[in-house]
């Protein structure tokens, strides 16, 4: 049996709490990070708060025993003041109302002391399947990469949606293409999956496309076209 | 029974030919577009060649009867010289070696004469399920939107992959995030699905991220961050 205390009230805290409640051999409690008195003892304390609040929360529970971990992709392990510290970073985009299947979520794990690793690994395996040993430097890079594949590709969908709405074309026509693009990046790599006017250097089509865009969209179109062309040189 | 002649040798010609061979009540033949003599008569002739070759092929079969259509997302219907003309545009990214399930492919259809519409609609329904009536102006916009959701989001994956490779982190850690991002754009719209430091205007994280990127990546990061912030103003 592993006992876990989750500090926080956000999406990550809530989804982890729900998952641990259903897990075998896990005793979990969830504590509002603004009411940090009389927290029950636990093998692992998970600080699941916003990035800039992690340090404050860590300092406010200085005399706490056990392993103390945070859940952030962007913050160094050493922000935690305790000696026994780690990172328990589930790499997925969490929304309040969308249920999470942790079996498909990669857990990026790190501990300051080797002896603590198997503890958070067991914790991750109690609700998920995939664990990766990722140190703080690698995690920071992974977090930047995640911004590109998630926030920025989503913004590409947003622009596609804007163009469709403006021209009274249903955006749903593009759903199968979105799916296929996401699948091919995994099955044959993004490099091999690249197609389109930028890759072909189809100057006439690029020119026609630019004429159909607003200034902001044009700027993005041109920069990404240049970047695609540089990447295949 | 509908008889179809496909002119062309590329991916679209090949995948359509294979699909029509398996369809009920379709008699299909495929002709190399450089050998346009003695093509059997057909109800529909599909010019499935590269965008800049459509006009030439159309002019070289001037005395051909029946409905003449092309398969391009970017080219106007009127590039076809014949009176009975149309567009039969399957909106998907076709690769040579990846089999196509046309049941999930949206067919964007247009005919010059109303009376011809049911003919290409039947043709599309013989191999697929989803058909949309899209005129040439709308199709051009849709084609630009497709560049954003396909070519450009794939380039975001490529940059994510580059960052991972450079830092010896397996890119596969990001697969579930790529999947989830593609799904959420469909289930809750890209606008509502947007998260991340740009949306939160998390200046410190943005600064940290920029320090981890090369010049080209920085330029893209900054432009897209600005664009995301403008889009939620």
Task: Explain what you see.
Two copies of one chain form a homodimer. The first copy, chain A, has 233 residues and is an alpha/beta fold. Chain A is built from nine helices and seven strands; from the N terminus they run βαββαβββαβαααααα. The first copy, chain A, has helices at residues 11-22, 54-60, 117-127, 136-166, 175-187, 190-193, 197-200, 203-211, 215-231, and strands at 2-7, 26-31, 44-47, 67-70, 85-90, 106-111, 130-133. The first copy, chain A, has a seven-stranded mixed β-sheet with strand order 2-1-3-4-5-6-7. The longest helix of chain A has 31 residues, at 136-166. Chain A is elongated. The termini of chain A are far apart. The interface between A and B is large, with 89 and 89 residues.
């Amino acid at each position: 049996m592993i006992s876990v205390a989750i500090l926080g009230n956000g999406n990550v805290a809530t989804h982890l709490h729900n998952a641990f409640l259903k897990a075998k051999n896990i005793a979990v409690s969830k504590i509002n990070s603004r009411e940090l008195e009389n927290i029950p003892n636990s093998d692992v304390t998970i600080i699941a708060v916003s990035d800039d609040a992690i340090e404050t929360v860590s300092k406010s529970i200085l005399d706490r025993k056990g392993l103390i971990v945070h859940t952030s992709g962007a913050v160094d392990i050493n922000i935690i003041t305790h000696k026994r510290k780690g990172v328990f970073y589930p790499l997925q985009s969490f929304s309040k109302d969308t249920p999470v299947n942790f079996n498909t979520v990669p857990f990026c794990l790190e501990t300051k002391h080797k002896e603590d690793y198997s503890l958070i690994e067991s914790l991750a395996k109690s609700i998920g399947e995939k664990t990766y040993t990722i140190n703080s430097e690698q995690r920071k890079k992974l977090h930047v990469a995640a911004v590109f594949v998630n926030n920025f590709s989503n913004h590409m969908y947003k622009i596609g949606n804007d163009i469709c709405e403006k021209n009274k074309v249903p955006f749903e026509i593009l759903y199968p293409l979105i799916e296929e693009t996401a699948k091919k990046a995994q099955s044959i790599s993004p490099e091999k999956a690249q197609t389109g006017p930028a890759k072909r250097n189809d100057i006439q089509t690029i020119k026609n496309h630019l004429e159909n865009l607003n200034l902001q969209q044009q700027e993005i179109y041109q920069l990404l076209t240049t970047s695609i062309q540089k990447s295949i040189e």
